[in-house]
Amino acid sequence: MKYKLIFLLVLWGISPAFAQTLQSAGGDRNSFPDPMAPKDPNAPKPVANGKSGRAALDDSTKMLYGPQTMSYFNEEDVLNGRGAKKSVDTSLHLFHRYLFQERSGFLTAHLGTEGTAVRNIFVKKPDQIGTQLGYNAYMPYAFATDEVKYYQSKSPYSDIEYYLGAGGQTRLNFTFARNVDSLWNMGFEIQRQVSDKFLTDSKYKSGNQTLTEQWGVLFQTNFRTRNNRYRLLSHLNYFDQGIQDQGGLQLLNGLDPTTALNYTDNGALFATSGVQSNDSFIKFHFYHEFIGFKGLQFFQRVDVENRTAKFKDLDFATNLTKSFYSKNFSSQTDSLYNENQWQSYTHQTGIKGIFRGFTYRTYFKQRYWDVNNPMAGLQKNRLENYVGLFLQQKFNDKIDFTADGEYLVGSDYRLQASFISPFFQVKASRISVSPSIAQNWTYNAAFRWNQSFDNVLFDELTGTLDLHTKNVYFRPTATIQRIANYAYFDTLSTAKQAADAIGVFRTGFSAGGTFKRFEWSALVLANTKTGPDVIRMPSLVANANLALNVQYKKLLYMQFGVDVQHQSAYFADSYMPTIQQFHLQDRYEIPAFVQADAYVTLRINRVRLFFKMQNVTQGLLNSNYYTAYLHPAMARSFGYGVRWLLFD
């Protein structure tokens, strides 16, 4: 019945009666001119052979399409009444950063290879209030609702990406969008991602080297009426992630973690290849609005989600003896299963408007969620009621003040405000959020608890200065966080709650610029904290990029560069795949490391390519390093990729 409901909603959301509009985001940071930049298609065409009128029109007269004839936007732009059109990125700037961890500015960490579990290096405030499932290790790889691009194009648009890195880290993305007419656009995006094992196990030895496999499919559409009074955005999002968990490298014969980094043929802790995780979901999202007057508009959102997170260990008894699991709650020892089936249904209805630079939005939202553990035969559910308010005053195009609040009746709340100017930015927030299902309720053969943690309270204040000249920018920043009732997973992977508040202070800067043919950028963050030692973060994180721009006959544009990242030593978290949680470990302090990647990027017309030697300094500045406890980073390796934009 649930799938039938989703199917009917999809048909309603993407039927020809409804469609799609304009798009945004991105920005061209390329200092090179684009030789294929299209001219205004409405501009007069040159007259051939001195002829005019009908005599000048022949089969050779063509309209050029390109980045300037299409645009995109996000739902947030429509919701807040911003009409700015965003252009697709065609630059070479940081194009070589093709892995998710690299695209995050090296502020996330995985288990050594793309497609494995992901965590943030620094603690982050929650994105939303209300009870969440809490199984988020693979969600960064999925298409996010607030990042979906809705297009408006005068010609069919395609974006083809293919990246092949070491260890079989392969990703293929294909995006297609086109206007059905001037008011309706529709399209889709497909993502395929795989990676290979670099720790040996039984399947690896028999020729099956696949570690992760992932599919992502997104169908999106947007539509507006000719008088712009009605607008609709909708998408269907499918995600399926599978992984043969390896548990990290196995320390045999008294081998210690530091010495193990010197070997390239380390065996996996889960030697029999009997451990697998799967996380999949299908989400339907629908947004529409009606503009009665500029100061009074009506909007509505609908979200339907169906998700299943599974884990199985067919060699549970052996892994118990290896102390990977601390306890066995069941008499059955041959296997371990964990599964959570999650459904949620959300509708949000409200009014909004704009009057002389003042924007407001208020709404009422209801959300029903249901989680079922079929192994335990247990189920939990709840109906949540929310109210929200958004206020923004734009003093001019560069200065504005924003205040935003949301309240879950009887429980959570979120309050945040920001002031943005050309010279500085200040953001403050206070969030009280319910613990996740994973933190409050878990039931399987190795982990069981049913508890009622208090709400976690996050206070955060961030300030940034913006200092710049024509060719250089420098942005010092500072963040202060206070976290009370912090929920975490201890060294035994058991959910706990801190009794005392935790203070975090982080300061640093981002900088960059150009000098003749050189361009550079850098990010430096220093971090310290007080209170219980239940959040482990490095005290210093830094990365920098230096590139030399070379142009050949206005046809070939190249960058020769080097990427460098550094991270100080700290007791990085370990990972428990059974419950998709990173947890504390006191066994081994991950050493500090410096990694350098050398690369060459090229652009020929609208085709961009890169060739990259990753971890090129391995064995020079240091040996390899760990991204998480007993999970080594990818050793020195070669990768390449291509991205091709098509506009007709």
Explained architecture:
The protein is mostly beta strands and 648 residues long. It has one domain (70-647): Maltoporin, Chain A. 6% of the residues lie in helices and 50% in strands. The chain has a 22-stranded antiparallel beta barrel. Strands 1-4 form a two-stranded antiparallel ribbon. A hairpin with a 3-residue loop joins strand 27 (540-552) and strand 28.
Radius of gyration: 26 Å
* Count of domains: 1
CATH-defined topology: Maltoporin, Chain A
CATH superfamily: TonB-dependent receptor, beta-barrel domain
Instruction: Give the overall shape, derived from the CA principal axes.
Output: globular
Give the amount of beta strand, in percent.
Answer: over 45%
Span between termini: 41 Å
What's the tally of helices? Answer: 7
Helix percent reads under 10%
Largest sheet report: 22 strands, antiparallel, barrel
- Tell me the total number of β-strands: 35
What is the architecture at the second tier of CATH? Beta Barrel
Global structural class: mainly beta
Q: Give the low-pLDDT segments.
A: 1-61
Q: What's the CATH class label?
A: Mainly Beta
